[in-house]
Amino acid sequence: MIARALLLILWLPVQAAAQGFAGLGTDADGFAVPTPNPVFDFPKDHGAHPDYRIEWWYLTANLTGPDGTAYGIQWTLFRSALAPETREGWSDPQVWFAHAAVTTPDSHLVAERIARGGIGQAGVTVEPFAVWIDDWQMAGPSFDEVRLTARGQAFAYDLGLQAKGPLVFHGEGGFSVKSAQGQASYYYSQPFYEVTGTLTLPTGDVAVTGSAWLDREWSSQPLADTQSGWDWFSLSFDSGDKLMGFLLREDDSMSFSSATWIAPDGTTTAYPDGAFTAKPMTWHKVAGREVPTEWAVQLRDKGIDVTVTALNPDAWMAVSIPYWEGPVTVQGSHNGRGYLELTGYE
Amino acid sequence: MIPTALTALLSHWRCNGLQFFAMIAGLALATALWSGVQAINAEARASYDAAAATLGEGQFDQLLPRTGDVIDQSTYIELRRAGWQVSPVLEGRLRTEAGSVRLVGLDPLTAPGTIAPVGMQEDANFDDFLTRGVLFAASDVAESLAATVTQRVIVDPSIAPGVALSDIGVAQTLLSAERTLSRLIIASAQPIGLPALSEVAPSLVRQPAQDTGADRLTDSFHLNLTAFGLLSFAVGIFIVHGTISLAFEQRRSMVRTLRALGVPINLLIAMMISELIAFALIAGGIGVAIGYVIAAALLPNVAATLQGLYGASVAGTLELRPEWWLSGMAIAVLGTGLAAAGALWKIAQMPLLASARPRAWAVASGGTAWRLGAIAALLFVVGIGIAIWGQGLTLAFALLACVLIGAALILPLVLHGAVGFANQRARAAMWQWFWADTRQQVPGMSLALMALLLATAANVGVSTMVSSFRVTFVDFLDQRLAPELFIRVEDEALSLELEAILLTQAREVLPLLSTETEIAGVPTDLFGVRVGPTYRENWLFLEETPNVWDRVEDGRAVVVSEQLARRADLWTGDRLVIAPNLMLPIAAIVADYGNPLGQALISEAVFHELYPDLVPMSFGVRSDDPTALRDRLTTEYGVPETAITDQSRIKAFSLGVFERTFTVTGALNILTLAVAAFAILMSLLTLASIRVPQLAPAWALGLTRRKLGQLELIRAVVLAMVTTLLAIPLGLMLAWVLLSYVNVEAFGWKLPMYLFPGHYALLTLFALLAAAFAALWPAIRLARTPPSNLLKVFANDR
Amino acid sequence: MVLTVKAVTKSFPAADGDVPVLRGVSLSLDRGETLALTGESGSGKSTLLHLIGGLDRVDSGSITVGGREITKMNDTERAALRRSDVGVIFQQFNLIPSITVEANIAFQARLAGGFDADQAGRLSKALGLTEHLNKYPEALSGGQQQRVAIARTLTARPKLVLADEPTGNLDEATASEVLGQMLRLVRETGAALLIVTHSQSVARRMSRRVNLSQGHVV
After folding, report:
1. Which of B635, B789, C15, C192 has the least C-beta neighbours within 10 A?
2. Among the listed residues B667, B654, B739, B738, the one whose alpha carbon sits nearest the alpha carbon of residue B49
3. Set of chain C residues whose Cβ sits within 8 Å of the Cβ of B260
4. DSSP codes, A54-90
5. Mean of the pLDDT values across residues B459-467?
């Protein structure tokens, strides 16, 4: 999920604090940096951490209509701090922005919102749980039971989410290392949401059901400055097992990989660099560039050898900092579905 | 072989430094002219965009408080939380030592793109703008602000006079208006399924986008300036053509010798083309640089303009954009190619045996003049044909091309005729010789004089067009923005009350009564007007009958817009059905530049009979002191600040923009004349050596060298005079084609043309001065020619 | 034979139809020979010289220079022939005005790729040009300019030298002197010389003489 961090670095005139070691309490600009062996405090940690530079609530869902048609939705709220503090009013240095999308097999609809903290236009509360920007929100009595809404010029959705499993912590208990030099973030997920609700498309309303995966991540020094982009996979197999894996592409065509295997009961196995592999198979031209929309993915330890294919290869997020994000189908040693995110393809 | 031949070819320039300078300088000047005009064009564009942005808070719908002039910030949050894409604006007066400044606070994160110019300026990053506070203002305002506020003030000349721009939060602090807003801008794109505004924010009213019509006028202005940009390039091409054909003429003997010595003609041509391309690139580079300097020196508010022009984003430094370079270089190379094609063709076709004696810079000897005249006549016939039967923008430009090229080609014939006529009239021997000699000079100077012709015509055309445009625009503004203040009511019930107040306070009150209807099958805005001095004094008509306003006031006539009249195929005197039981004669036609809707004006009384339920929701108010009236209305009568628009300020700003453009077109005049003068200078200098054998006999027969010099000067002025006299009608024709033909084809309406004889006289004077100035040095050189040079002519052994 | 001309015809277009200038001219010239081509104005003698130099094309007939038929050559081949095998001297404007006398003398040999500085030096000395080598042509008198043209032509060691009224622009004494120098040097190099002239005194100094009249050899 660190790709989002990349977006943020491009988006705001902040220097990525690419320190080659972890463990210091703060970086040069006074932001806190993640340290190993985190102790999370819920529900407080579902809320914002304004002393970290960047943070997100990143939700993707694979959905099915009454006729069996596959859909995907994305709902993402980013927090980006210009300074490690909050202030009342317009001078609040916390900037919020959000992306929403609906993907169908033949269309991809996108909307974007930007707002400032401090005035109530965007923000987070913990109890009851609510994350919002304008009228887009993810809110409910608790983190485990939320209603998710967003709308753009040509689409809207209104979905109910119910968590059916525990939170999942990536890396070492939620301390997720992003490079050989030690860049890291705090990273946990709720991959067990069950979804029912309605999509409003230009062709009319569609009742949908399915599953959603929420990623929570925050950091201040996410990428090494040699890392150029990111390929991120969240896959749910028909067996009930799930796999999160990512490749951080290095400038010299090497890459850093990391993965978490999630059993149906939520127990996790974290894999270090190299265990998870993903190789592009088909490249697709979208928005004037080539992106790989079909992948060969392997995790030998779990006997995973699958082909991951985009539901709609044109799932281009034409927002301020554009990237590719869309639902995928999984076939091979295991079948299933999931989400794919590709960034840094120029 | 190639190095040897190339050395010989290039050695020509070493020995003819002046010619080399003429060619490089001519090319560079042509490129500079092109670049400079592009810059001026872009400046005009930028100015109008700034004007349009200021005129038109117009482009977006807005939400205003129904009562009072304050919106609580929570209303903004409620709207956003309901999904409405609105952006907050806070306005207020900030006291500074030098007076008060209107401070406008915006939120760059939510403002629709075109409204927030401050978004991403390099020297004030987002972070600064949002959290530390930065103000933007034009230089005078910036100065007075700097002493008052602690925030950084950045000079940005694109911001309207008397206004400063900042982040909304900074504005709230500076204006001590925490948690309040003045109005909300509604983005044009909104998400689906929004709740009604009246539910979310019942205390606000939606004010639709306003259209002053100014941008439609400026579209036409841009097109015309572009046409003149091309024309100035044509002037440049003539000069390049002149210098290049001269250089080629003078190398004829060398070409013959080289060929006789066995250099293949193809190789020679290839070498000459490479040589030309190299020169074109060098000269083009110099030209772009000169154009850049010209733009920087002549344009007012250089920093901002150049920022726009070159995409530079660091204040105070100028950066040439790659496109700028490329277009300049391309023009130089293409222009050289165009100019050299003929010369190269001649070289390729030149029989080896043709006389190797270099000829003068001859374009049009007697026979050629007639041939060119015949081509010109043909072009004129084609032009007349296009004018009568042609339609479409392309043909309109073809017409322009016919007129211009035709005029340039007929010039040698006209000069021959004029000089021949003078020759017949001359009695004194010296003058007979003078005229005969002048006639001999005509071919050699034709190209330079053609350049002068086009330059002067362009100047006459530009000033006519710009002045006509200015007169029209000022009239239009006077007409549409005559009332100093505009005041809106949001509630019908308050209309009568406001009108009563206004009547006691203002010189004249003009209720704005209008409805959209269909007249003669044309969608039309029908206005009910209260006829008074404002209408009688400010409205100009394209066509009118006697006592227009008296008859409108009495309900006996209607005034319609040009669009309505043209589309309904009716004109003054015709009767127009306004409503099922109302038919009125058209008393006058009024211009309404580019409005897609028709317009019809009837009296307030007649309007009330037709639409008894319609109440005026806004009033125009005439006042000698709009500021005082505004203050009175807001303080004593509680009229919200945001309900009042100060039109006099808008008008003053747009007129200011025009003045800027005017100065800038003055620069264009100077530039083109300078180039034409350069062409004359160069042709005279190069003719000088060839002319020695012609002058030597006159000298031998008793004319002093001083006298010869004087005569040279007079000759240049006489030729320039004839050329200029031809240029004035040509320039007027040019303006006419652009205003009444190209404009109609491009926009569907005619821009009236006004004549400015004083200005033309001045231009003529400038043109003659330019010619005299150009001839001065060659004349002095002639007067100082050593007698031995003249004697050489008589020596047998050349 | 250095030069063979066989049945060459040439006419030029004019307002009232083509005007025949050469109506079947044949002649030949051997190594070391000097030939005067005479005839009144318009007899076609300059035209014939230009045709032989490959400066123009025949209508019919053939011209062979150094064993190669130039009437079958294209422009490039003829240009190459002019560089290496033929030298042409005109009445005036022979020189490139923008380079020095020395460079002019070396010019043709350099073009042909066979410049011999000693040869150039000898010729300059023989023609009395040594002190003018660094001057530009315009600083030279007409006679001196023609001497430079001769030096340039002979430095390139052509098989055939063509001269079109080379002394026509010079006064009598200078003309005689220049002509003498030219004949002597041509003989030394062993080239053949064809000279077009209307001057009887010039013609008399050649080994052979051909008179053209109305396009025919008479």
Report:
1. C15
2. B654
3. 53, 55, 82, 88, 90
4. EEEEEEEEEEE-TTS-EEEEEEEEEEEESSSS--SST
5. 78
| Overall CATH class of domain C3-217 | alpha beta
User: What is the percent of chain B with per-residue pLDDT over 70, rounded to a whole number?
Assistant: 77
Residue B264 touches chain C, beta carbons under 8 Å = yes
Do B69 and B204 lie in one domain? The reply is: yes
Token pair listed for B769 = 């001065």
What does the alpha-carbon distance between residue A326 and residue B619 come to, in Å, rounded to a whole number?
55
Element (H, E) at B527: strand B522-529
Q: What is the ipTM of this complex?
A: 0.91
What is the domain range of residue B345? 1-41+218-354
Residues B192 and B223 placed together within one structural domain of the fold: no
A/C Cβ contact: 3+ pairs below 8 Å: no
Contacts of B456 (CB under 8 A, 6+ apart): B672, B673, B676, B723, B724, B727, B728, B731, B763, B764, B767
Q: Is the Cβ–Cβ distance between C63 and C5 less than 8 Å?
A: yes
CA torsion angle for C168, C172, C176, C182 (degrees, to 10)?
-30
AA identity, residue C88: V
Choosing from B161, B190, B209, the residue where a domain stops is: B209
Judge: B257–C79 Cβ closer than 8 Å, yes or no.
Answer: no
Residue B291 to residue B280: CA distance in whole angstroms: 15
B158-175 residue pLDDT tens: 666 677 888 899 999 999
Tokens of C71: 């009437």
Query: Cα separation of B481 and B476, whole Å?
Result: 8
Is the CB of residue B194 less than 8 Å from the CB of residue B84?
yes
DSSP B568-579: HT--TT-EEEEE
CB contact under 8 A, A155 and B172: no
Given this model, what pLDDT does residue A199 score?
A: 96
Smallest CA–CA distance from C76 into chain B, residue: B264
CATH number of A3-10+31-343: 2.40.370.10
pLDDT in tens, B180-198: 998 898 888 899 999 999 8
With respect to residue B20, please indicate whether it lies within any of the assigned structural domains.
Answer: yes
- Residue B785 and residue B707 in contact, taking contact as beta carbons nearer than 8 Å: no
Check residue A1 and give its pLDDT. 34
Amino acid type, C194: L
Chains A, B in contact, 3 or more Cβ pairs below 8 Å: yes
> What span, in angstroms and rounded, lies between the C-alpha atoms of B36 and B783?
37
Does B597 score more than 80 pLDDT?
Answer: no
The domain spans of chain A are: 3-10+31-343
- Among B77, B80, B123, the residue to mutate for chain A (most A Cβ within 10 A): B80
**Residues of chain B neighbouring A53 (CB-CB closer than 8 A):** none
Q: Is B390 exposed, middle or buried (0-12, 13-18, 19+ CB in 10 A)?
A: middle
Contact criterion met (CB below 8 Å) for A106 and A137: no
The model carries a pTM of: 0.54
Judge if B454 and B400 occupy the same domain.
yes
At B676 the pLDDT is: 73
- Residue B49 falls inside a structural domain: no
Count of domains for chain B: 4
Best of B6, B7, B249, B257 to substitute, by most chain C Cβ atoms within 10 angstroms, is B257
Q: How far apart are CA B420 and CA C197, in angstroms?
A: 43
pLDDT digits (tens, 9 = 90+) for C158-168: 889 998 888 87
Q: For residues B519 and B380, state if they share a domain.
A: no
Query: What is the C-alpha separation between C213 and C209, in angstroms, rounded?
Result: 13
